[in-house]
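step: validate -> pass
step: tokenize input -> pass
step: predict -> running
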Amino acid sequence: LTMDSKTMQILRRDAEDICRSAIEASVPDAAIQRALAQLPPCQGRTMLVSIGKAGWQTAKAAYDALGSAIEQGVVVTKYGHSQGPIGDLAIYEAGHPVPDEHSVRATEAALAAVSGLCARDRVLFLVSGGGSALFERPLVPLAELEDITGQMLACGADITQINTIRKRLSGVKGGRFAQLCAPAHVYAILLSDVIGDPPDMIASGPAYPDSSTAEQARAVVKKYGLKLSAAALELLDRETPKQLDNVTTRITGSVRQLCTAASETCQTLGYTPVVLTASLACEAREAGAFLGAVAQYHQDSARSLAFIAGGETVVHLTG
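step: predict -> pass
step: emit ->
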């Protein structure tokens, strides 16, 4: 494709505006408040646990809606993502995409807040992207967990494969957090960052029955040649909870919704939007080559076109 620099600047500006508006349309405040409107009355105490890169925003939306009804709360988000105090909620910042000591310390604070609850109580559990690293009680030494996470991020594994391993090395993932909250009921509101919105894979499913198996976990290790200790390999064979009777789950926010929001902005800017997919999953260079080929094929179109692809690309590091 050849074009003058002014045209390139206009296209770049419009693309940035489209991406920015899609993100702004998907901020968690309204979505969280809509989900909270469906909450039934609580006869006991309400505890709040909010985890993820949007953990502060989701906690703020919940606090604005429920206020003093929240007896105690813990927020765990990425470094630099807290925007100040939220009532009496305890706010922690921790490591992402690799868990660190602050992740463990914040998780222990959350577990302390939900311990000793009764069946009349409830736990409002707000989950957003990044929760896998930020919310962690490791069953292997933290240094080993950090190393395994680094291996998985570098080998080109996708988020579902990564979370299949993470669940089995954690005391809170794969439904185990919900078990620790019992007999209190867990109301989980998930902002999805995983293709297809599988609730057991978003943040590694701390409050959802695990659909993955030990056999699948072993297959991931073999496929990518991951180096795990004997103790970690043994943990992979321990099955995760397959049924939970104290959880209600709501999913909001998704790649599909982002694509829809982007399409609407494209139309206001005078482009005809074409959504190619909301489930792109490949290496970043493959996606770049594909999108470039699409643009080249349509370069002589009489219309101003905007091609939209949502999903997740990965990068396989070498050297």
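step: describe -> Residues 52 and 129 are 5 Å apart (CA to CA).
step: cleanup -> pass
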